[in-house]
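Review this fold:
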Amino acid sequence: MKKHLTRIAAATLGIFSATAALAEYPERPITMIVAYSAGGGTDVAARTLVPYLEKYLGNDASIVVSNKPGAGGEVGFTTLAHAKADGYTIGFINAPNILTIPIQRKARYTMEDIQPVANVVYDPGAFGILPSAGIENLDQLIAYAKENPGKVTYGTAGAGSDDHLAVLSLEREHGVKFRHVPFNGNADVRAALLGGHIKMASMNVTEMVSDSEEGTVIVLGQMSKERWEGAANIPTFREQGYDIVMGANRSLGAPAGIPAEALEKLSAATEKAMNDPAFLAGAKDQGLALYYMNAGDFTVSLQSLNEGYKALWAEQPWIAQ
């Protein structure tokens, strides 16, 4: 894995010096696979970016989003990994999920099947709970969990997601036990929380800001080093004495082996899109926590994350083996 990612990083850095142009790309519609349900944070990020990718790819580019939820992202990641590497199938990939799935079980894809293109979003984790629960901060959550072992049900986008690992970290550090209820995506988690089917949602902060502002959900904290500007009223976990920093990378990827010229055009179009004032305004309206990394930097970041998750799994697996 490490050697492979290093090779990708070297190759990625090299493509930007290439002068050969794939002038006619794209010549037909591009499919963008989103591995989670429509309406969730990944889907919103993808659909917000798409018009600007089309703009900067040029040649009357057309990108069609295809949602492939299931198995914590594995269904969509597998579809992307096994697609023809011709530049006409791309996808949004999510870390840690895309890394943790092959660590925790025999998956139908490997990271060797995926070419990172660019990171688009880094979204801090957060816990949300209904006002009727009578819990307003992390101290109260921990106290309730200690008095009621296993009675705090919480929803996530699946085992091994950043949402799941965040709760496990809290359990380990504070001697409490919650009950995990996995879903196909965070839109489903939100619906279950609002419907009273689970006690707590472990999601990303951008996906709960609107509910927090409306007073329908209390967000107990965000798992970032500093408060994200879009949720400036929500304290970090660290501010409350809980040293947990966890979040989700939402990023653009493609099947490994994509032509260098297509990768170059996709990478350049992503960077231009993320500097477009209209996109920045739209991203702000949608509450996207933007964090750009080019293909080379993103590949190196994935390598570091992967090594860390492997070490964590070796120390304490996050699902039963």
User: Anything to note?
Assistant: The chain has two domains: 2-123+247-315, 124-240.
